[in-house]
Write a structure and sequence with these properties.
The chain has 3 helices and 20 strands. The protein is mainly beta. The radius of gyration is 21 Å and the shape is elongated.
């Protein structure tokens, strides 16, 4: 299990938008943003070393004013940007998460390419960033994100939270804890045992009633995650927040979880 300072990709993008919306910049003494560059981009592919690598759907880039952030495909990142008029930009990478995932080959290449001086090539509905050796990052405009609803959505727990630290679930427990909130009731799995409970939503607060669950013995990392979730759900009102398709539940003591929207419940 890896511990790391982490801002989930969707949260990072939303934070950038909130912090930088309305910020203009000067273009060689002029006023106004580079409207055809600044915004949300879906990374489509990379070309490097004579090969083309198609991007996973999760590879996104947000450019706002002199900042950038997004997701290499699994890991979130931030960066500083300096524009050279409208023809080039220089990228200085910032913090990034360090989660092991299946898209690591693509992530490693995108990490190498999205730094230093990049020239800007514009096309209809497309933006391409080029490195000095001719490698490219091809992108298309990203549709505005739509937050998943709290209710009638299946949420799969992917990390636990302790203050500013988010700990990804161990491989053994990954994908096993999930729940759905419908008609005032929460039901799902704690990772090993099935559970149900009353669920009350009042504004930004979510309160679980006493949990009813099966009683299988749960050992190892799966058992540890289950105990953590049981304690969290029983700790009283939780603050809930959704950004894009990520739900964060936080208790007053700073403990909590993050969960990804899987699918709408039937």
């Amino acid at each position: 299990m890896r511990r790391y300072r982490y801002v989930h990709a969707s949260a990072a993008l939303a934070a950038l938008v909130l912090a930088l919306t309305g910020c203009g910049r000067s273009e060689e003494g002029g006023a106004g943003p580079l409207s055809d560059v600044e915004g949300s981009w879906q990374v489509e592919s990379l070309t490097t070393g004579g090969r083309t690598m198609h991007a996973p759907e999760t590879a996104v880039l947000e450019i706002r004013h002199e900042k950038a952030g997004g997701n290499y495909g699994c890991n979130g990142f931030g960066a500083e940007i300096v524009f050279e008029g409208t023809s080039a930009l220089t990228v200085t990478p910032g913090p990034a998460t360090l989660v092991g995932c299946k898209n690591l080959d693509f992530e490693k290449e995108l990490t190498k390419l999205f730094k230093g001086r990049l020239t800007i090539d514009r096309g209809p509905g497309r933006l391409t960033l080029k490195t000095a050796d001719g490698s490219t990052i091809a992108m298309t405009p990203r549709p505005p994100a739509v937050d998943a609803p709290l209710t009638a959505t299946e949420w799969t727990v992917d990390a636990t939270v302790n203050g500013d630290t988010v700990t990804s679930l161990p491989l053994e427990a990954g994908g096993k804890a999930h729940f759905v909130i419908t008609d005032g009731t929460a039901a799902g799995s704690l990772g090993c045992n099935r559970f149900s409970a009353k669920a009350t939503v009042e504004g930004s607060m979510l309160t679980f009633g006493p949990l009813t669950s099966t009683r299988m013995a749960c050992e190892g990392q799966v058992g540890a995650v289950e105990r953590a979730l049981t304690d969290l759900f029983g700790s009283g009102p939780l603050t809930w927040k959704i950004q894009d398709r990520t739900l964060t539940l936080t208790a007053p003591d700073g403990n909590g979880l993050t969960a990804e929207a899987a699918s709408a419940a039937e």
